[in-house]
Amino acid sequence: MKNGLLLMVDQALRLHGPFEGILGLGRPEVKMSGKAQVNRSAGELDIRVPGYAEKAGIRRFSMCFNREADGVLGLHTAEPSKRLESVGQIHWGVDFHGISIGEGNAKHRVKICDPKEKRADQEPGAEAKLRTICGLIPDSGTTMITGPENQLAELYMDICSNWERCQKAFEEVSKEMKDLQDQGMQVGGLSLTQHATVPEELADAFKKLQDILQAGKADAAASNTSSGDAADIADILGGAAGAEAKPQTQKDYMKANVFLLLLEHCADWAEGVDMDQELPKLNFHVAGLNGVQTELSLRPKNYIMTATADINVPEMKTLGGLTFQIERKKRGKVCMPAFQPAPFTTKLNGEVWIMGTPLFYEYTAHYDRGSADGKVKPSMAFTHVHEEPCGRCQDNRIVRGGHPALTQKKSEKTGVESLRQLTKAPIVRNLTSTHSL
User: Fold this and answer.
1) CA angle 18-22-23, nearest 5°?
2) How far is 165 from 274, CA to CA, in rounded Å?
3) Contact (CB, 8 A) for 189 and 250
4) Do the Cβ atoms of 102 and 108 come closer than 8 Å?
5) Is residue 365 a contact partner of residue 388, using CB atoms and an 8 Å limit?
6) Rounded to whole angstroms, how far apart are CA atoms 360 and 368?
7) Cα gap 382→280, rounded to integer Å
8) Are 140 and 365 in contact (CB under 8 A)?
9) Helix axes 149-161, 250-264, angle to 10 degrees
10) How far apart are CA 377 and CA 89, in angstroms?
């Protein structure tokens, strides 16, 4: 091995599925208070092992992904102009100020992670400057974007409110629910993560929703309408995420389910549709320890994904002169938000979100490990692909120009074909510290 470096560590890892190794580009270690230290088993030696970047003398590096080509890991990269000092002391992490939906003056703020709020259980003292209402970890090793289930429910409701097709469908379903209640029928709740089982008393309401889905298709009368069956999706996303989601009202919760159902039936309405024009943009508001703030905006093509799942297709059969309806399972395309419930709460940084691969398809993430003397703190910066294309590696250097063939190919795609496909169970980071990021 010429001009190379090999550093191997024997350590047990709790990982499921295929795994190729860890490069070791985590945040530099810092001295923490006793309560922040990870407990070690009796007799285990506290041995510090230097990471790859430290041993190789790499201070700055960057990471980004391409849709239909390899991503780019840059080493010894240039210093970015807008640095956000890492709030996280264990992980690369920033202060998370919540999410807004839309663009320009029409942005709507989701009621989560408001920095004006104060958590009563957050600890005072010397670490007060590190305190946040919420935190966010940019992590290229996590497939989806993870967050608390109740906050995801709030986000889904607000996306639906700002998505014309979803708002219209919700109004139709709400009217049906009201009619049922006026008739004295009790309408039961629906689970956010197991939304595909339609209660009998809501069958007519969801039939109307399916009619709305078909309204945009030229040959609606001739097309087969699939009924909800997302058991495969639940398996892909890890099944039910628990019963912690408690939206404000049953009506609000219904809106979140309409959003999920619309995406599940995307094959019925998305053909020829520009998904970036169809759904609203999401803006993640983040800040560094140095007070620098920025927005990380995700286009729908990066926060909506597609997968192949079993769906029920109704068919009319004739037997002995009698016509009756049966359902047949077939494999079909469904869509889903690139979000996954994963509760992670810390005493110092509140609810913590993990921003996985969708971020790295939209931005090049720059990392600075800081100076050895501590004068320059570890920091991050994010450059949008429109300003700095991910590019490719060529002759041991980064060429930021895109691949013309791939760019043209991507620009021509619409509907479900324009979305990233989820082909296996997503990877979720297992965070263990309950004190801070």
Assistant:
1) 140
2) 13
3) yes
4) yes
5) no
6) 17
7) 21
8) yes
9) 80
10) 11
Phi/psi of residue 384, nearest 5 degrees: -70, 150
**Which of 257, 293, 263 is CA-nearest to residue 416?**
263
Contact 416, 307 (CB under 8 A): no
Q: Mapping DSSP to helix (H, G, I), strand (E, B) and coil, where does residue 62 land?
A: strand
Per-residue tokens: 106:
């029409």
Going residue by residue through the chain, which has 437 residues, state the pLDDT in tens, using 9 for 90 and above: 456 666 666 666 565 555 555 555 666 665 544 444 444 444 445 555 666 777 778 899 999 999 989 999 999 999 988 999 999 888 899 999 999 999 988 899 999 999 888 665 555 555 666 689 999 999 998 999 999 999 999 999 999 999 999 999 999 888 877 776 677 665 554 444 444 445 555 565 666 665 655 554 433 333 333 333 333 444 444 333 333 334 455 666 788 989 999 999 899 999 999 999 999 999 999 999 999 999 999 999 999 999 987 655 555 555 555 655 555 566 678 999 999 998 889 888 999 999 999 999 999 999 999 988 888 999 999 999 999 999 998 888 889 875 544 454 555 789 999 999 998 888 887 777 777 77
User: What three-state secondary structure class fits 178?
Assistant: helix
Taking CA atoms, 271 is separated from 131, 239, 251, 263, 348, in Å, by 46, 28, 30, 13, 46
What are the residue boundaries of the structural domains of the chain, listed by start? 89-357+405-421
Centre a 10 Å sphere on the Cβ of residue 88 and count the other Cβ atoms it contains. 28
Task: Give the span between the Cα atoms of 328 and 330, in whole angstroms.
Answer: 7
Residue whose entry in the numeric block shows the structure tokens 């009924």: 227
Single-letter code of the amino acid located at 278: E
Distance CA 391, CA 81 (A): 20
d(CA 4, CA 9): 17
- How does strand 345-346 pair with strand 339-341? unpaired
Distance of CA 263 to the CA centre of its chain: 15
Q: Report the CATH fold assignment for 89-357+405-421.
A: Cathepsin D, subunit A; domain 1 (2.40.70)
Find the farthest-apart pair of alpha carbons in the chain and give their distance in angstroms, rounded: 87
| AA identity, residue 339 | F
The three-state DSSP-derived secondary structure of 353-411 is: EEECHHHHHHEEEEEECCCCCCCCCCEEEEEECCCCCCCEEECCEEECCCCHHHHHHHH
* Pair 135, 87: CB distance under 8 Å: yes
